[in-house]
Write a structure and sequence with these properties.
It is built from 20 helices and 19 strands. By secondary structure, the protein is α+β, with helices and mostly antiparallel strands.
Length: 552
């Protein structure tokens, strides 16, 4: 099978005999493919491909549309990251499009206000939004359409309107109280009585349309040096936040070298810190020597090993990862064979750990994800977020978009890589994933295979590992892999698992010490993926979201 290595005939393969009843089919396409969390974004991205644009053109166009139709997850006030396989350069490149904390943001100021932690709402956790600059930088280096063309469908939808989709409506409703706390948010996103909007409600956002038109006519500098920047700084200052115009003007995206680890004939790629992608790689390194294929995908023994590997990797994540300037260790330290073996030995195959400690090393959060590919061999793994649903809760007056609350990821604990400080990179949960085949004919003996991601804050690394193992060990096709039931572990011995898997494995996992419960809807993330076939493309967008995969 083109999508997996090994024989999965003895494995419990979720997605075949136990396929989710609402499951979809994998989309196969000859020239290009787009998979996003909303059909309108997929449609506009596909239109760009059909008109001869690149995967980057399609991805940025779709991302801008998502900022309109899923404003609780993404928008002009958020950050973005991308992994891109360039068909022309025959290599993988990374773009880090996140902003820093404001120059006025200090632990001492927060403590003087009585804060024991960085607030999750309001102006204080607002950091510089880097996503718009990332859009422009991707287009400038790898696109063929102008920035104004990429934003045109989003501006049109914001002004002319669209019907609210079902999953988005339910997610908006969960944040009703937050939206009521900001007059602009209440006016745009709630009904006349301050209540949630129902699916099918016609949505317009003229203020956001005006902001997008400003960006179309004046370019991305409008958000960082123009009137939009001034509006952002004013509302943040008025509400007690820490951004200045100098903070906005100083922002730049960063082209970075992706980090990677081998796994079963593949190489899995992530962006470097301050993102949590290293946890994906460390989980895979820990798991690599265990006989997972003999255990069987979806069995209690298999799930136990994944859960325990997750605990070990996340313990290291919490202790060591943040702004790389302040990290006392490197990615190479965390992935070194000797250190990984030490962490692997800490995994008890017969009992669940309560809260494993981070390993000893020498001193030295809500999102949209999309994938796109084109007939020139370009593949984009792209993620954009305002952190928590509706971010800080603050809408920029007259601009119609929320500001992210990424500063809430900082810790008040002194002396860590992620301690709050001025001009610092906060720990980031959003991570695009990419996989190459090691035996291919591409750069360095590799060829591109999979652009994939799983939305959902701390769900992202553990979700990426589950999806990838469904493909590599479980023999599933792409849509089966994203639809298959997932688990989520947050802390202690508690783990939630989706039906029907929880009914099958719950008692056995309980005997190993896990406290198992059914996963509530919406808690295990949402995935999109595009994979390269021997000829053509496969694409998938799971039914946990309103999304769609399409090809041409």
């Amino acid at each position: 099978m083109n999508q997996a290595h090994g024989d999965a005939s003895d494995a419990r393969v979720w997605g075949r005999s136990n396929r989710r009843p609402e499951g979809r089919s994998t989309v196969f396409a000859p020239r290009g493919a787009v998979a996003t969390s909303h059909p309108l974004a997929t449609g506009e991205g596909l239109r760009v491909l059909q008109e001869g644009g690149t995967a980057v053109d399609a991805a940025v166009t779709a991302a801008a549309v998502l900022a309109v139709v899923e404003p609780h997850m993404t928008g002009l006030g958020g950050d973005a990251f991308a992994l891109l396989w360039s068909g022309h350069e025959n290599e993988l490149v990374g773009l880090d499009g996140h902003g820093r904390s404001g120059e006025l943001m200090t632990r001492e100021r927060l403590e003087a206000r009585g804060a024991a932690s960085v607030p999750e709402e309001g102006a204080e956790p607002v950091t510089v939004p880097g996503g718009v600059r990332a859009w422009a930088d991707l287009l400038e280096r790898y696109g063929t359409i102008p920035f104004s063309r990429a934003l045109a469908p989003a501006a049109r939808l914001a002004r002319d309107g669209f019907p609210l989709s079902p999953v988005v409506a339910s997610e908006w409703a969960e944040r009703t109280e937050l939206l009521r706390g900001d007059s602009e948010a209440r006016r745009i996103y709630l009904d006349a009585d301050g209540g949630p909007l129902e699916a099918g409600t016609w949505i317009t956002n003229p203020d956001l349309a005006d902001a997008l038109e400003r960006l179309r006519s004046r370019g991305p500098d409008e958000l960082y040096r123009g009137e939009l920047a001034q509006r952002i700084v004013e509302v943040v200052a008025d509400r007690g936040g820490f951004l200045t115009l100098d903070d906005m003007a100083a922002h730049r995206s960063r082209w970075v070298s992706p980090i990677s680890a081998p796994f079963r004939g593949f190489r899995v790629w992530q962006l470097p810190p301050p993102g949590q992608g290293v946890a994906v790689l460390q989980m895979l390194r820990i798991l690599e020597t265990f006989p997972l294929d003999e255990m069987g995908v979806g069995t209690p023994e298999y799930l136990h090993h994944l859960i325990e590997a997750k605990k070990l990797a996340y313990a290291d994540l919490e202790r060591y990862v943040g702004d790389p300037t302040f990290m006392g260790v490197t990615v190479e330290d965390l992935l070194a064979e000797g250190y990984v073996a030490h962490r692997r030995n800490a995994l008890d195959p017969k009992a669940a750990a309560e809260a494993p400690a981070a390993g000893s090393l020498p001193d030295r959060g809500d999102t949209v994800y999309l994938a796109a590919a084109d007939e020139s061999g370009n593949m984009v793994s792209f993620i954009h977020s305002i952190f928590h649903p509706f971010g800080s809760g603050l809408v920029v007056p007259g601009a119609g978009f929320h500001l992210q609350n990424r500063g809430a990821a900082f810790t008040m604990e002194p002396g860590t890589a992620n301690t709050v400080a001025p001009g610092k990179e906060p720990f980031h949960t959003i991570i695009p994933g990419f996989v190459t085949r090691e035996e291919g004919s591409g750069s360095g003996g590799r060829e591109p295979w999979l652009a994939f991601g799983v939305m959902g804050g701390p769900m992202q690394p553990q979700g990426q590992v589950q999806l990838l193992l469904n493909l590599v060990l479980g023999g599933m096709d792409l849509q089966e892999a994203v639809e298959a039931p997932r688990f989520r572990h947050d802390h202690g011995r508690e783990v939630t698992i989706e039906p029907p898997l929880v009914q099958e494995v719950g008692p056995s996992l309980a005997r190993l010490g896990h406290r198992v419960a059914p996963a509530p809807p919406g808690t295990v993330g949402g995935a999109q993926a595009v994979s390269r076939l021997e000829r053509g493309w496969a694409a998938a967008s799971e039914s946990r979201k309103d999304g769609q995969a399409a090809g041409c």
